[in-house]
Amino acid sequence: MEFHRIILLLLLVFLVDLSDRNVKAKANYNATGYEDGTSKCNIYEGTWIYDKSSRPLYGTLSCPFLGLDCRKFGRPDYKYLQYRWKPTGCDIPSFNGQDFLTRFKGKKILFVGDSLSNNMWLSLSCMLHAAVHNVSYNFKTDKLLSTFTIPEYGISVNFLKNGFLVDLVGDKTKGLILKLDSISNGNMWLGSDVVIFNTFHWWSHTGRAKTWDYFQVGDKVVKEMNRMEAFKIALTTWAKWVDENIDPSKTRVFYQGVSPVHQNGTEWGEPGKSCLGETEPVKGSYYPHTNEGEDIVKSVIRAMAKPVSLLDVTAMTELRKDSHPSIYAGGGSKLNDCSHWCLPGLPDAWNQLLYTSLLGNV
Would you name the residues annotated as active-site residues? Predict the structure, then answer.
């Protein structure tokens, strides 16, 4: 009788713990609302509003390390700089660089991911630099870790290049192996006050663009597998690492939502077209093409025990077929870049939503 009572007690403890984990994860995942004093809304649902008075917070002159400045590389139009994101049902605060620096004085912010993370990191660095452009700063890029610091505020905004989050290791006979269930360099992700993770862009690469030779899970090594299945295994490995290593009282964790490409005009009803020559967003708030990667990200985060805030920017970004560099990325007319984003441009809106989230209203 006593044995059965102990078993029942252990079962109740397990169910309570599981329920608590699910509540935490769901509360965190659903934390997309912003309360402006009168109403609450999902800040990731809305439309892009054309505003002639809208001007970017920075440019080549106010941000000397800008990078993907499409106007500098010859883009003739500028309407893509005059759209602002308007959530349905509320207004969100404009980005205030001075306020950001004051709130995060002495703090470390880290972006971990691929070139889309780099896009967002450069955007935020420029937005902060423009707010106090007469103050000294340090900017350094490297193959692995790039840093931007403003000593007067003691703030550092860093980018750590890691396209897969899981391990990519060399093998003498097989070449590069993507180990989907292994993270050995996670110690580099520790010690920051805010960490924004991202991976997705590289998982669909084929041919010369593919940067690995084999997949590995456990002892099983395969040449090829379903890419979205591989992505989900890797993201689950990352989620487990966060659950086991991050202290939410010390570090706020975000996941930068999947950034779509606009290479196939069929997706928005214009077969044969790409982002090249596009000057306006898709009208309305609905994009007819679904993104499988977005669904995987949401399902993995939903199952996590530790709080991770999803920057759920996929849907709003899908509408912006006009904001890619296309042939104005600095690589000449043969390179049509429909993956990355002009700066200034769309990533500034991502950082506005990051700022909104960090204000504590979501």
Answer: 115, 337, 340
